[in-house]
Amino acid sequence: MTDTCGVCNRPLLDPESRAAGIGPTCARKFTGGHGTAGSHQLTFEENDMTEQPKPARYRKLPVEITAVQLRWSSWSLVCELLGDALLAENPDGAYEIPETEAADTCGEPGPGYISLKVRTAHDELATVRHGDWIIPEAQPGRFYPCKPEVFAATYELADTPKPAGRCGNDPRTVLSPGDQAAVTEFKGYLAEKRRADEAEAVLAETKKLLERRTTTLRKRAETAEAAIKRTVDVMRAYVVASGGAGVNPKQVIDLLSPTWPNGNHEAPAPGQTETRSDRCTSKSRP
Predict the structure, then answer these.
(1) How far is 142 from 117, CA to CA, in rounded Å?
(2) 69 neighbors 125 (Cβ within 8 angstroms)
(3) Buried b vs exposed e over 205-228: b needs ≥16 C-beta within 10 Å?
């Protein structure tokens, strides 16, 4: 026996509940109101319904249809799509309607526009007016009309890219010649700008290359100039020491490296300079 309910831990007041270990309220909850659960019965804890999963969302798979818009320019396609159903539902042929009754004039001149009947999958006759789209049902000889604005918002061409129009789906909304010319001009501007950017990048790279080349040449010229100055100073010292009158430029060049200005530009040793100087001086005397 126990003094508290084994489910809700509330105190048990009557002997039957104490003997069962469960209060009458909890017993009815798990047995459907038929008394205390027996030893052969299963009991379950309460399940919070807020934790139940929500219904999943599903997306309808895209389907492709065949459709023709009712207008003068596509009359041959309408006849091909309807086939025998055209005369079956319109024994007197299609009839003309005023512009006010047309779903869309499609930019075609009036005053008369087309209208005809088609039989739907519910075996009812439906009226198709100029500008409406005709869509075949799965059942042969059955069709249903679709308003142009609904068709444009629901379908798009499956085998060709979208027209470059404002609405995207309606072939009548392609760009006007003026808009198309503006687009073409803008594309030309983008191409010209791309070429100019590429030329500017090449020019900048060439400028950097020339700057590096100029720096290299300037350093080589400075190195050569310093070498010449050192050689001239050495020659002057030798001339003063030998009692000569001046410096022979040819001797300066001879003292430089044979690969000048790509050599090391170092002045020759004093012994070599004296020998070459004496030889040049002796050759210059009469």
Answers:
(1) 11
(2) no
(3) eeeeeeeeeeeeeeeeeeebeebb
270-284 vs 177-242: helix crossing angle, rounded to 10: 80
Provide the sign of the torsion angle of the four alpha carbons 209, 213, 214, 219, taken in this order: positive
Q: Indicate the pTM of the whole model.
A: 0.38
> What is the C-alpha to C-alpha distance for residues 9 and 218, in angstroms, rounded to an integer?
99
Range list of β-strands (E), 188-261: none
Q: If we measure between CA atoms, which residue out of 281, 285, 276 comes closest to residue 231?
A: 276
Residue among 225, 230, 227, 242 nearest 277 (CA)? 242
pLDDT digits 0-9 by tens, 37-93: 555 444 555 555 556 678 888 877 778 889 999 988 888 899 999 999 888 898 888
Retrieve residue 251's tokens. Answer: 């001797």
Rounded CA separation 267/255 (Å):
7
Alpha-carbon distances of 178 from 45, 95, 164, 225, 226, rounded to whole Å: 74, 37, 13, 68, 71
Residue 222 vs residues 74, 236, 263: alpha-carbon distances, Å:
85, 21, 13
Give every CB contact of residue 167 below 8 A, 6+ residues apart in sequence. Answer: 152, 173
Two tokens, residue 210: 């020339």
Is residue 73 a contact partner of residue 108, using CB atoms and an 8 Å limit?
yes
